[in-house]
Amino acid sequence: MHPNPLYRSDDSATDAVLVGQIGFGMVFAATPDGPRVAHTPLLMTEGGAVQFHLARSNALARHLDGTTALIVVNGPDAYVSPRWYDDRNTVPTWDYVALELEGPVRRMDDDGLEAFLHAAITKHETRLGGEPWRADESSEKMWAGLFRGIVGFELTVAARRPTYKLSQNKLPETRARIADGLTEAGSPALAEWVRSVAR
């Protein structure tokens, strides 16, 4: 988390927006073999917990149940040029959106894992538009093989550490120019976040 409180947020609803938009993150935990990280799809439940699955063979999978873990979600990020400021006698910076969620993890049972998978499939297939692929298009053998290969988990959020570094230390008109510059430079997603604090 960035040390400047200007870049933090008490609004946990924004966390859900970020997790929903990105849908992917990193899970960190200590193991007897040292610290480990896994990259995985994420879903936030209506209650604010975060669900994910790992390959059964993943180095973290056998250590997560009952432990405390850290999930990191990286949102959009980009270089911010001083050319977009009123005073060019300054230095460049980097704007970014990131979220750390810490808490205890429990392993989900098969019903919980299946519900997670169906929810994730529905969410991402809907985003693609067109005729969605449906889980029932997989054979029972294929689906059973999937279940043998993965494990589902849920992290209950006990601590959240968001960083929304979006040029809040600049005047609104400067932030508007930064957002325009980011859009032109190919970072429209970050530009939208910058605009969200420029209003």
Automatic annotation (TrEMBL):
What superkingdom heads the lineage? Bacteria
- InterPro entries named in the record: Split_barrel_FMN-bd, TR_PAI2-type
Name recorded for this polypeptide = Transcriptional regulator
